[in-house]
Design goal:
The chain has 560 residues and is an alpha/beta fold. Helices cover 25% and strands 24% of the residues.
């Protein structure tokens, strides 16, 4: 389990949620604070959920209260234990620990009894209208709806029909139970909403006990009340549902009803969080799964190498407000980069190798050079890197005919090898197609560590890997999955039409310094001059797979 976070305040431009809670406590509305994080287990958590998680858990922490995890499993046809397990793993990885874990299905008996009570009060009725007919009757934003012809059934008839629905007498869609509120309400959510529907489907928690299931808008406030939640914190799309939330609690006379407070959801550009569209990406094989490192899911970000602390800091920076906004992906990457810069050990890796032979270095000889693991963290110590006659450098670090201000290797030029020697390029070999295959260089034995007796300096410093002591790896260069800021904007075409063709580039022949033998899944590094990388779960004893987490600097531009 991840380390539990003791304190992680959400301190953005505003935190009106805490202002509301302070006032409630001051006025004696509540004497304690209890929150909950209530995801539906019909998909994997994404970066938007991270904001809700941080808000709910840190709010409870601030007031010495409780925060529960509740799986809102009221739609069994789309839910699965795979998602339940993934949700729990993501929350723990993010650094939080719930007080108790509940399921909305744990309250099905209570919720059912509340529905019966509403019928007995004349506040609910069984309706035979089809879904299409209900849409017709509902009205519009400017026109009131029409009452169902079944709205005035007697209490006895409604109780009988609801029991027969529960006993499985009717097929799916034949009847629903609706609250009796106001078909002329300016808030369409209050126009006799459906609170129970028939669904002959097995539930991952309750099995085949039920064939009627409560709607989310009915189950949610009752689950909050049953758990004794004081403040139900949710995203802004539920603001128009708040009158309905409050109506159920008031009509049923529940003691110390919770208060719903809405905040703006996290919208991140160049990413997709719609579960339906994410599932399409998975099912169509566009990505490798919910944890594909290009996905905006927490599991994808974890696999890509995003530290949990960086995501918490990102949520901290964007703050809490009611205003709709879109956060730039670059801010998230900056938080990741800052965290890894402080904490990731350094190493050398050559992603596109070009062989170098140092002709005047003794054949068969090697030497060990000590290099700091992280200059900002002396406590991480030093590592030993092997230097030898045969090396690899990046293909981009050589030009046969250099352009202006090119200070790396070209015939006649001298460069410094990081923490090693000065070398001068003398000649190069090519294959039949003219591709450069090998450089021949000489080194200055007096220049180890970058100092020379004559004090001369060079403008180019290159990273390198010994060909005699290296680890071969497949490196996956991940980038943003989409080329447009809002992939959900249908006016710019289907989200599948706006995929970034370079969101994944696979390099199969990369080499890492020999000291990285034995690194394991999740290990993170800064590869000098390259960026930040981590070990992927696809790695085996025979094949090391490395993911690029983020570059050293933000240079991303959408493809045109």
């Amino acid at each position: 389990m991840a380390e539990i976070i003791e304190e992680n305040k959400i301190e953005g431009a505003s935190n009106f949620i805490h202002d509301f809670i302070d006032k409630d406590l001051e006025d004696g509305v509540y004497s304690r604070v209890q929150t909950r994080f209530p995801p539906e287990p019909n998909g994997y958590l994404h970066i938007g959920h991270a904001k809700a998680i941080c808000i709910n858990f840190t709010t409870a922490k601030k007031y010495n209260g409780l925060c529960n995890l509740r799986l809102d499993d009221t739609n069994p046809s789309k839910e699965d234990m795979e998602y339940v397990d993934a949700i729990k793993e993501d929350i723990e990885w993010l650094g939080f620990k719930w007080n108790d874990c509940y399921y909305a299905s744990s309250y099905f008996d209570f919720i059912y009894d509340c529905a019966v009570k509403l019928i007995e009060m004349g506040k609910a009725f069984v309706c035979d209208l089809t879904a299409d007919e209900m849409r017709e009757y509902r009205g519009t934003l400017t026109e009131p709806g029409k009452e169902s012809p079944y709205r005035n059934r007697s209490v006895e008839e409604n109780l009988d029909l609801f029991k027969r629905m529960t006993d499985g007498e009717f097929p799916d869609g034949a009847r629903v139970l609706r609250a009796k509120i106001d078909m002329a309400s300016p808030n369409i959510n209050m126009r006799d909403p459906v609170i129970y529907r028939i669904a002959h489907v097995s539930h991952h928690q309750t099995g085949d006990k039920w064939c009627v299931y409560p709607m989310y808008d009915f189950a949610h406030p009752l689950s909050d009340a049953a758990e004794k939640v004081t403040h139900s914190l949710c995203s802004l799309e539920f603001e128009n549902h708040r009158p309905l939330y409050d109506w159920f609690l008031k009509e049923l006379g529940l003691v110390e009803p919770p208060r719903q407070i809405e905040f703006a959801r996290l919208n991140l550009n160049y990413s997709l969080t719609s579960k339906r569209k994410c599932l399409a990406l998975v099912n169509d094989g566009i990505v490798s799964g919910w944890d594909d490192p290009r996905m905006a899911t927490l599991s994808g970000m974890r696999r890509r190498g995003y530290p949990a602390a960086a995501i918490r800091e990102f949520c901290n920076k964007i703050g809490v407000s009611k205003a709709y906004s879109v956060v730039d992906y670059g801010l998230l990457e900056a938080c990741v980069r800052d965290d890894l810069n402080r904490n990731a050990p350094r190493a050398m890796a050559v992603l596109r190798p070009l062989k170098v032979v140092i002709d005047n270095y003794p054949e068969g000889q090697t030497e060990v050079i000590e290099v700091e693991n992280n200059p900002d963290k002396p406590e991480l110590g030093k590592r030993k890197v092997t230097f030898s006659r045969n090396l690899y450098v990046e293909q981009d670090d050589f030009m046969a005919e250099p352009v202006k201000k090119y200070f790396r290797l070209f015939p006649g030029n001298e460069v410094r090898l990081k923490s090693a020697y000065y070398i001068t390029c003398n000649s190069y070999e090519t294959d039949e197609e003219g591709n450069v295959t090998c450089l021949h260089c000489t080194y200055d034995p007096e220049s180890r560590g970058g100092e020379t007796p004559d004090g001369r300096k060079v403008k180019g410093t290159l990273h390198w890997v010994s060909a005699d002591d290296c680890v071969k790896a497949e490196v996956r260069l991940y980038d943003r999955l989409f080329n447009v800021e809002n992939p959900s904007d249908e006016s710019k075409g289907s989200f599948k039409e706006n995929l970034n063709p370079e969101s994944l580039v696979v390099l199969k022949d990369s080499v890492l310094e020999g000291g990285l033998k034995g690194i394991k899944e999740g290990d993170m590094f800064q590869f000098m001059r390259q960026g930040y990388f981590c070990v992927d779960k696809d790695s085996t004893e025979d094949k090391l797979v490395i993911n690029r987490t983020v570059g050293l600097n933000s240079s991303w531009k959408p493809a045109k």
